[in-house]
Known about the structure:
By secondary structure, the chain is an alpha+beta fold. The chain has one domain (4-77). Helices cover 31% and strands 9% of the residues. The chain contains two helices and two strands. A two-stranded antiparallel ribbon has the order 1-2. A hairpin with a 2-residue loop joins strand 1 (4-7) and strand 2 (10-13). Helix 1 runs antiparallel to helix 2. The longest helix has 16 residues, at 31-46. The relative contact order is 0.24.
Amino acid sequence: MPKLTEDFGRPSFDPHAPLSGWPVFRGFDTASECEQDRQQIKELAQKDRPFSPEIPSMTRERTAVFKLAVTFAVCVSSDDPRLKPK
């Protein structure tokens, strides 16, 4: 998923940023395993949960941006040329 950033003090992300700048969350042996995990994460993120008071940086606004950013998550092979910095 795109890296979360701050724009003028507000949480943000750029879904059009190069994949080389996106964080890698997990590695999988197969594309099928990755896709299954991606779908599960998307479903969990969309559940109506309040922000986490245990994690101060997870404000309501940041949680909403995270939920949207998760919808852009993609599975790519570790040798995908888009992962190489330009």
